[in-house]
Design a protein that fits this description.
Elements: E1 5-9, H1 16-23, E2 33-34, E3 39-45, E4 48-57, E5 60-67, H2 72-86, H3 93-100, H4 108-111, H5 123-132, H6 138-152, E6 155-158, E7 161-164, H7 169-173, H8 177-181, H9 187-201, H10 207-212, H11 216-224, H12 231-240, H13 253-261, H14 271-279, H15 285-294, H16 300-307
Antiparallel strand pairs: 1-5, 2-3, 3-4, 4-5, 6-7
Helix pairs in contact: 5-9, 5-12, 11-12
Length: about 300
């Protein structure tokens, strides 16, 4: 049976390989599946589950619908999700011009050419993931996320494999602290996640609400008023879900290590130096953070050499 295929034009310098690298970094991420030249992702559109496969052909992202009855609403939702997720049309030329003006970072324009800021379009997922990752290592954070998704999320079965969808805030609003403690959540994290879900369920928080606020400071203030969300979590979610250009997760350990490695700061407490450095990248601070994080890991070619392939 022929399945529908949707298309999105990509920028000339869009790198699908860099997307694949980021989405498959040897962590046990249950939210998507990658192969050597494809991504598979399950998604809810108007509460209906879909599974699609993305490949890059020429200057097009080809999105093949593997499961789900497609209509105009679903088509729009999937295309918008992929655009928000991978930013295939985003023009990086202004950012690359700024990088070229900084000798310590100019190499990034060629080494990470075409890398886009891979997002988390769903705000509730972005905030929940940020809370899960607070003060624990990434390996354990991904284990907690998988347990949460297995218990409370939906899944699409296709060709003998399950493709998972992140739990809705409605599902988690009905969970108990003891339920999450059984998944090895700490007492506080269990309380934070359930409390956040109830705030979303009550309509007090949403992506549309944050987008309606006048500026970054107002969005930060709205988020940090929620129990369990500090300024790092707020900035991370704004960067990954709303793609807020000026959102910097200050204090992030990886970001500080990258700044030290590039001899931009000497000490992690050099706050004024960090502020001054980012001021030269006005409107592209989020991308600078993402590229600095990228610099801490091997390039695509280096990873292929060390692992042999990227097939999951």
């Amino acid at each position: 049976m022929n399945r529908p295929v949707l298309s999105i034009s990509t920028a000339d310098d869009f790198s699908f390989d860099e997307c694949l690298w980021f989405l498959n970094r040897n962590f046990d991420d249950c939210m998507h599946v990658t192969g050597t030249d494809f991504i598979r992702k399950a998604l809810l559109i108007s509460n209906e589950p879909f599974l699609f496969e993305i490949r890059h052909e020429g200057h097009l992202l080809q999105i093949k619908i593997l499961s789900g009855a497609i209509d105009a609403l679903a088509e729009h939702g999937i295309i918008q999700f992929v655009k928000d997720w991978l930013e295939p049309t985003h023009d990086l030329k202004p950012f690359y011009e700024l990088l070229q003006n900084e000798p310590k970072l100019s190499y990034m324009t060629s080494r990470y050419a075409g890398l886009r800021l891979i997002g988390i379009p769903d705000l509730f997922e972005a905030l929940t993931w940020s809370i899960i990752g607070q003060q624990i290592n990434l390996t354990f954070a991904y284990k907690l996320k998988r347990r949460l998704v297995d218990k409370y999320g939906k899944a699409v079965s296709y060709d003998g494999k399950d493709y998972h969808i992140f739990p809705s805030y409605k599902a988690l609003a009905n969970a108990t602290v003891m339920d999450l403690r059984e998944l090895q959540f700490s007492q506080k994290k269990a309380e934070y996640v359930i409390g956040l879900a109830k705030i979303f369920e009550g309509g007090e928080m949403s992506k549309a609400y944050l987008q309606s606020l006048p500026d970054l400071e107002a969005r930060q203030k709205a988020l940090t008023a929620v129990r369990g969300i500090g300024i790092w979590t707020a900035n991370y979610a704004l960067m990954k879900s709303l793609k807020e250009p000026s959102s910097i997760p200050h204090g992030d350990a990886g970001l500080l290590n990258a700044l030290i490695r590039h001899n931009i700061i000497e000490q992690k407490t050099d706050n004024m130096l960090i502020v001054n450095f980012f001021s030269a990248f006005k409107g592209w601070e989020n991308y600078l953070v993402f590229y600095l994080w990228r610099s801490l890991a091997p390039t695509v070619s280096e990873k292929e050499i060390s692992s042999g392939h990227r097939e999951k």
